[in-house]
């Protein structure tokens, strides 16, 4: 599995997990909005940085160093 | 969102930086505030240790050390497999997340005291114990036969860095002197929250200043900086139940598990692993995890633990 694929899967899992926990907390009267907001910020960040195509060369370079 | 008054100063510092307001603190003052917080927390913990210390503390301390060694083993494969980071960088960041942040701990203390939630007063002992093992584990994870490790210099950095030395030293002084330390409390006790607010003002500014580095390091590190505290907090909460801590103690151990070092570990790693990307680990711990814990994490851990335990 390429580094870029693995990191994308990780980011998507994190975003969905935060969203799910946030919604779950809201149903139990816990402060879930914060996690939902963070998940939205991470989604926007991930999308923007990938669109700018800045993440691929960086990750590949770091992986190749090893 | 319930925001503690000291955490509000963090937000103020962040906003000031976003709007490019000229509120930068002199470096010497920032360092002095760090020293103050370390001594204040250590001293308070030492006085409590003299009063409440018992044999139960021994096995509690052992499990806390075990907790500190466990966290880098969780962070390392995430960074290596999903982030595609080099072994050295992964080990260095994992060490940061296995260790603790004294400022995050101070904010959690402020929140507990504002809400009048009881906690084990000797908790600074656990903070000191959690500072060290992660560094050793990080170095072990980064082991590479081609690289030589300056053991003398590295050991010196692990045990005699500013965080470990001042926290452990003032803890021992507080423990040894007991009630005699009370005469220092007008400075280290009464002024604690005011100084913490000043410190957080600067931290808000510094962490926001580094936000632009995310463009360079990518969104993976941002996601890691958010998910790792939640993993650490969950484990911390579970360990707290095993060692039978109070509601306040559980919140504190969850917070410590969630926090990442940005003082002690970077100093040790820059000596022991000079090839590791220090900017990457500091960005993750200081720019993502610290604000996350102060603004979102601590209120969340408190609410969750109170709901589950009461």
Account of the 3D structure:
The complex is a heterodimer of chains A (66) and B (310). With 66 residues, chain A is mainly α. Chain A contains three helices and no strands. Chain A has one domain (3-65). Chain A is 83% helix and 0% strand. In chain A, helix 1 (3-27) runs antiparallel to helix 2 (33-51). Chain A starts with a helix and ends with a helix. The mean pLDDT of chain A is 80. Chain B has 310 residues and is mostly helical. Chain B has a single domain (26-309), classed as Up-down Bundle (Na+/H+ antiporter like fold). Chain B has 16 helices and no strands. The model of chain B has no long low-confidence stretch (mean pLDDT 87). The A-B interface holds A 2-4, 6-7, 9-11, 14-15, 17-18, 21, 25, 28-31, 33-35, 38, 42, 45-46, 49-50, 52, 54-55, 58-60, 62-63, 65-66 and B 1-2, 78, 81-89, 214-220, 222-224, 226-227, 230, 277, 292, 295-296, 299-300, 303-304, 307.
Topology of this structure?
The complex is a heterodimer of chains A (66) and B (310).
Chain A: H1 3-27, H2 33-51, H3 55-65
Helix pairs in contact in A: 1-2
Chain B: H1 5-18, H2 27-52, H3 56-82, H4 87-98, H5 102-114, H6 124-131, H7 133-141, H8 151-160, H9 162-177, H10 185-188, H11 192-209, H12 213-217, H13 219-242, H14 247-258, H15 264-272, H16 278-309
